[in-house]
Design goal:
The complex is a heterotrimer of chains A (538), B (316) and C (420). Chain A has 538 residues and is an alpha+beta fold. Chain A has 19 helices and 15 strands. Chain C is built from 17 helices and 14 strands. In chain C, the strands form four sheets. In chain C, strands 1, 2, 3, 4, 7, 13 and 14 form a seven-stranded mixed beta sheet that branches. A three-stranded antiparallel beta sheet of chain C has the order 11-8-12. In chain C, strands 5-6 form a two-stranded antiparallel ribbon. Classes of the chains: A alpha+beta (538), B mainly alpha (316), C alpha+beta (420). Chains in contact: A-B, A-C, B-C. At the A-B interface, helix 1, helix 2, helix 4, helix 9 and helix 10 of A face helix 1, helix 3, helix 4, helix 5 and helix 6 of B.
Chain lengths: 538, 316, 420
């Protein structure tokens, strides 16, 4: 055989043992073209790394800078080293995977240990600032001033001054950080709307100038005996006083008017008063395993968990099986060379794949409408598709079949083309029926090639939120349990639990996702061990 | 007695022939046990029937969309399959919006996303298929498991991440095609890698070995031998990547708020907004136009998907 | 071989140096360019939903920007604007102004996302009282309203010339028309497979139910949940009588996506919906009229929910000065209100604007009158978000024919559980 001859030749004259060269493959053969490409790419990588590092440097983000340096060094090492061949192929994809998928997943999982959600998104400082800010009330009996923003002197550097006009009393004032100072009517010019247009010693700002000093203006206020005067936009000012303030000594919020106190509850991230009433604004705190125990002790979840898990698996497996079977069937049938119009069939069959999935889910949901839907009208029936569990499951799987079989059809066609047509011919010459040849030769090969795809498709459909939520929304719901429907899968239930309550509860949702993740991971690992799907197949 | 096929020759897809064999091109339908030289229907016609049924099954919901697009009062539940009172009003309304710009954005994103993710996926699939290294199984499994984490939860994390990115590197931040492209690359190692690995596995290792002995580097084997052999699946993956990027809505809608940066999917949903009913006709019209490049791409790729190639699964 | 290696090494070094230099140049230029940008003039970023209202907002925003020399960018966020706004606010990427429904206020305030607004007495007086009430939360005003919508009864005047005086009257007329073969449905009230508490609220309140009790100083009391109480069960018993096992006036197969086509195709003479339908109805030649949603005979008044759209100032926006100016001084003008109305037919919140459209759009004024007379502001407390889903599902179950007592009490329990 030619092969062994070449091997023999190779052993007769062993190649010189060269130490691994810079940029060369271990056996000393590297095409010049390959080398040039490698150099160019690495140079590009370095250029990008420098470009990325500069803003990090300017911002003094040392951790980010270190990461960029490390990653660049890693890339250089991998691509310049003659070994590490698998890494050369895996590194680009892995880097993207880590940054844009794994890091967010880890971050989200870490929120499972907090009460992150609505009213608990920021820090305690944020909450205090928000509470104080939203408690500012206009001091009763004070005028609603017409405001002109001005500076003492240069518009870009001078002190901010509020030129105020009380429209009722027709008096004007200059408000500085020392307080209000009356302005004589003869000295100033006032516009028809009451705005001070000119005043000696002060420069009135236009919008551009005011916008440039926005930060200073937002921090500026004119002190008065009962509070302070702050601006509202460019042309109004009010005298107001914050009713609530934070008192560090008691770690609480005090209301100046009513005297009520709300003390900080750091285990829940809320300010609570003596009766247990909390202020609206809270903050994010670490809650340890509380979300996890909540999930485990949730009554609805316990009662329906098994049911949802079973349907979740059934739905995912069912989708994969029916789409594969129909796709394969149609692919085999249409695979004949002589079949005219094959191209037309192919193009039109995959047309559903070109339509936006979300829109198609809605169209299908409309078709299942009991009284007006297309299906019922065509069949002349009055089936309430989402009224009973069995029909709802059937409806969902039908939609999935429609959406997915053409993907399988496409892939199977590609696979069938790659598999030697000669094989089946040869088998038939040997006396086998076409169907037998298919069953024993083509199909096993097909399965070998497509098994990973089927597994991956199962994984995708396991968490196919849209397929359930947009079509049936989990219906039908048992009358005594509005939370867990009969076609709910774990992820739709998670979504409803997390976002259906009084605001989003990301921490709780993350905890449930961790559970789902663990379950699926364990089952996948076990099934892989058994089917040796990861072993070499050839 | 099989001669070695030098790498250069395998660049071109050739129909499978054992080298040296006399090719008999005369059609011989002699070896078809069980089906006599029967009528057209028996041999081919029934296949047409299946094809037509499959076609009808695939097409009929799309007729809904077509009918809504042609109906000036286009609502989701027009309840009529065959369009009546056709008018192109929805299409003209569509071009009054920024649709042409959105369409361009989508095409750029779609093609770039498909190409890059295809390349990354193929490289990774090659590594998983051909090399044995520590962490190989773990890697394969983790690719799968990462897919199983619900997207809508990771959105907050992604948003925070991109908020920082936008501050530091605006060209790849929010409202840029490149930033969204990078984000999509995160998903490149996914279902497609598994799909391609399966196909790579069907190519016998002997091919690699003989080429290696002949002096080819792993890169040359990859680009020169393996890739041409799996052209059908590359075409399929590229097409799927394109479709995925074109139709992706959830992440794009969060990422792209500026009108000139939006993709067609995001822009079209903006037209329909809260009341799904009103303007559904315009939405349907846009959807149909958006489907055209996909179908065109498929037509273009058909010959790669269809052509039979060497290196079948089992070789003598 | 060695020489080749040396050349290769030199080439690599050169390429690297070249690229580094160019990157430095590019990077430096970029950072300095970035620095220059922040000082270059006034900016304002506004987020609003999609649709024709969003387009109109864009035009108005740009007009104001041109007049005042401000670079105004209006971005349309079609889905999940509230969630996206809160997420962006926390990430430091909030817009300066956001347009949204008033029932977002509770959630936005608890997340520290919006600032209260001080309105002058004159401005306040220019608005409908209920509109101002809607944007008030915990004693503070948070937004400048621009629309005030509520649902009414649409009636095909060819089929039903007189407005029904009660629900029972409506059902009777509907049945007559159905028997005569003129229509196929009695009423198009959206229910859907998962219910719709918003549209059924007039019937719910007329039957005696309520969502949340009122606090003495105004506003809703989250501790007093009406769902699950005997009054709510009684109300739903009346609703059950209209359901699929009763008169057949309420059906789960009728939902938001098909009420309009049912009404325009004359399959029903009555539709309960809001002024957003006017735009499409104009395109048909239908003869129709609107009237307040009727109550049950002998029941309490039927109170539709009032929803208000308002403009808010983001707490974490970068340009608060301009945002406050835009929202309090520009968005509150009648010209703006009218322009928005022309684009999307919602009831204007400004009294002056409503006056102006009296002649051209009398139906809109009728909607406003109905709202003013018996409308009930939709609760904006965060706890309301926990009500929709369970109550909706219970409503769907009751319409389907299941026992109101068990369904509604289960809903009440579920809501209480998620409020804890």
């Amino acid at each position: 055989m030619a092969k062994s001859e070449v091997r023999e030749k190779a052993t007769l004259t062993p190649p010189e043992k060269k130490p691994p060269q810079f940029g060369m493959a271990a056996d000393g053969t590297s095409s010049p073209a390959g080398l040039i490409i490698k150099i160019l790419v690495l140079a590009l990588v370095l250029g990008i790394a420098v470009w990325a590092a500069l803003p990090l440097l300017a911002d003094q983000r040392w951790v980010g800078l270190a990461i960029v340096v490390l990653v660049t060094a890693l890339l250089f090492y991998i691509y310049l080293s003659p070994r590490r061949v698998p890494a050369k192929y895996l590194i680009p994809g892995t880097l993207f995977l880590i940054v844009f998928q794994i890091v967010p997943v880890l971050y989200t999982m870490s929120t499972a240990f907090t009460n992150f959600g609505d009213a608990h998104r920021g820090s305690k400082q944020d909450a205090i600032a928000a509470i104080e800010g939203t408690s500012v009330q206009q001091v009763p009996g004070t005028p609603e001033y017409v405001l002109s923003l001005a500076t003492k002197g240069d518009p870009t550097t001078g002190d901010i001054v509020f030129l105020l006009t009380d429209p009722a009393a027709k008096q004007s004032f200059a408000g500085t950080s020392e307080g209000l100072e009356e302005l004589a009517a003869d000295d100033i010019q006032v516009g028809p709307d009451g705005k001070v247009v000119e005043a000696p010693g002060y420069t009135v700002l236009n919008i551009g100038q005011a916008s440039a000093r926005a930060e200073d203006i937002s921090q500026f206020s004119v002190p008065t005996d009962r509070g302070a005067i702050k601006n509202q936009g460019l042309s109004r000012a009010f005298e107001g006083t914050p009713l609530r303030a934070y008192d560090a000594s008691c770690d609480c919020i005090k209301d100046a008017e009513s005297g009520q106190t709300w003390t900080a509850d750091d285990s829940n991230g809320l300010f609570v008063d003596s009766e247990g009433e909390a202020l609206a604004q809270g903050w994010k705190v670490n809650v340890g395993f509380r979300n996890f125990t909540d999930v485990l002790s949730d009554q609805t979840l316990r009662a329906s968990f098994l049911k949802m898990l079973v349907w979740n698996f059934g739905f995912a497996i069912g989708t994969v099986v029916i789409t594969f079977v129909l796709g394969l069937l149609v692919a085999v049938v249409l695979n004949k060379e002589e079949l005219k119009g094959r191209r037309i069939y192919r193009s039109l069959i995959i047309l559903p794949y070109a339509m936006p999935v979300v829109a198609m889910y809605l169209v299908w949901r409309d078709m299942f409408n009991t009284d007006f839907g297309l299906l019922n009208r065509l069949l002349g029936t009055h089936i309430n598709w989402f009224g009973t569990t069995a029909s709802a499951m059937f409806a969902i799987l039908l939609v999935q079949l429609w959406l997915g079989y053409n993907y399988m059809f496409l892939v199977c066609t590609g696979a069938l083309q790659s598999i030697s047509a000669d094989l089946t011919e040869a088998a038939q010459v040997d006396g086998a029926k076409p169907s037998y040849a298919f069953r024993t030769i083509t199909f096993p090969l097909l399965l070998v090639a497509l098994a990973p795809l089927l597994i991956a498709s199962f994984a995708f459909n396991f968490n196919n939120f849209n397929a359930i939520y947009l079509v049936s929304q989990g219906a039908p719901f048992p009358p005594d349990n509005p939370q867990a429907g009969n076609t709910d899968i774990l992820i739709t239930y998670t979504y409803r639990l997390a976002f259906g309550g009084a605001g989003a509860q990301y921490g709780l949702a993350a905890a449930i996702s961790v559970f789902i993740f663990l379950i699926v991971a364990v089952i996948s690992i076990l099934s892989f061990r058994r089917t040796h799907a990861l072993e070499e197949i050839n | 007695m099989s001669e070695l096929i030098p790498p250069s020759e395998t660049m071109e897809p050739t129909p499978l022939r054992r080298p040296g064999e006399q090719v008999d091109d005369t059609p011989h339908d002699v070896v078809r046990l069980g089906s006599a030289q029967g009528g057209w229907f028996r041999r081919v016609g029934w296949r047409h029937l299946v094809g037509v049924l499959a076609l009808a099954f695939s097409i009929f919901p799309i007729l809904f969309v077509v009918s809504a697009a042609l109906n000036p009062l286009g609502t989701l539940s027009s309840s009529q399959l065959i369009p009546t009172g056709a008018s192109f009003e929805n299409f003209t309304k569509l071009f009054d919006t920024s649709f042409p710009r959105w369409f361009l954005n989508t095409m750029i994103l779609g093609i770039a996303s498909a190409a890059v993710s295809l390349f990354i996926s193929a490289c990774a699939a090659y590594a998983f298929s051909r090399f044995r290294f520590k962490g190989r199984r773990f890697g394969l499994l983790s690719i799968l498991l990462v897919q199983m984490f619900p997207q809508f939860l990771a959105i907050v994390a992604l948003y925070l991440m991109f908020a920082t990115i936008t501050d530091l590197w605006p060209p790849i931040g929010f409202n840029t095609v490149w930033g969204l492209l990078l984000l999509y690359m995160g998903g490149a190692l996914g279902v497609n890698t598994w799909l391609m690995k399966g196909f790579f596995d069907t190519i016998p290792k002997d091919l690699d070995e003989s080429a290696k002995v002949d002096g080819a580097t792993h890169a040359q084997i990859f680009f020169g031998i393996i890739l041409p052999l799996v052209a059908p699946i590359l075409a399929v993956t590229g097409l799927l990547g394109f479709i995925g990027a074109v139709n992706e809505f959830l992440i794009a809608s969060i990422f792209l708020t500026q009108d000139s940066a939006k993709t067609a999917a995001v822009g079209l949903y903006g037209l329909v907004s809260q009341e799904r009913n009103n303007n559904f006709g315009v939405f349907a019209a846009g959807t149909l136009i958006l489907a055209i490049p996909t179908v065109a791409l498929f037509q273009f790729l058909q010959r790669y998907i269809v052509g039979g190639l060497t290196g079948g699964a089992v070789k003598g | 071989m060695k020489r080749k290696l040396r050349i290769v090494r030199a080439a690599v070094l050169l390429a690297v140096v070249a690229l580094v230099l160019s990157a430095c140049g590019g990077g430096g230029g970029q950072t300095s360019g970035g620095g220059a940008q922040t000082g270059s003039g006034a900016k304002l970023l506004i987020w609003t939903g999609g649709g024709p209202g969003g387009e109109a907002t864009k035009k108005l925003g740009e007009a104001w920007g041109k007049e005042n020399g401000v670079n105004v960018a209006v971005q349309l966020v079609p889905e999940n604007l509230q969630t996206q706004f809160v997420t962006a606010s926390q990430a430091g990427k909030a817009p300066d102004v956001v347009m949204g429904a008033h029932d977002w206020i509770g959630n936005l305030v608890q997340n520290g996302a919006i600032d209260p607004i001080q309105m002058t007495e004159d401005t306040r007086a220019a608005y409908e009282k209920l509109a101002i009430e809607a944007v008030t939360f915990n004693g503070q005003t948070y937004g400048v309203p621009f629309t005030m919508n509520n649902i009414v009864l649409f009636r095909n005047t060819d089929l039903a010339p007189e407005a029904p005086s009660s629900i029972e009257d409506l059902v009777a007329t509907g049945k007559q028309l159905k028997a005569a073969g003129k229509t196929s449905e009695i009423l198009a009230l959206p229910v859907g497979p998962t219910g719709d508490p918003y549209h059924i609220n007039p019937l719910y309140t007329s039957g005696g139910g309520y969502m949340f009790g009122q606090q003495p100083e105004g506003g809703y009391d989250p501790k007093d949940l009406g769902v699950g109480k005997p009054s709510s069960i009684q109300a739903y018993e009346k609703i059950a009588a209209l359901g699929e096992k009763g008169e057949g006036a309420l059906k789960r197969s009728i939902a938001g996506d098909n009420i309009l086509s049912l009404f325009t195709a004359k399959k029903t003479a009555f539709m309960i919906s809001g002024p957003w339908q006017f735009a499409d109805l104009k395109k048909t030649k239908l003869h129709y009229d609107v009237s307040p949603v009727p109550a049950f005979e002998g029941g309490k008044p039927a109170r539709p929910f009032i929803t208000v759209d308002a403009a808010y100032v983001a707490s974490k926006g970068q340009n608060k000065l301009l945002a406050q100016e835009f929202v309090t001084n520009y968005w509150s003008t009648p010209e703006v209100n009218l322009a928005l109305f022309k684009a999307s037919p919602n009831v204007p919140a400004l009294k002056a604007a409503l006056e102006q459209i009296k002649a051209s759009d009398p139906l809109v004024v009728k909607v406003a009158d109905a709202g003013r007379k018996s409308g009930q502001i939709m609760p904006s407390i965060p706890e309301m978000a926990a009500v929709w889903d369970p109550l909706g599902k219970a409503e769907a179950a009751v319409v389907a024919g299941s026992d109101p007592a068990s369904s509604i009490s289960a809903a009440g329990k579920a809501i209480q559980a998620s409020l804890k």
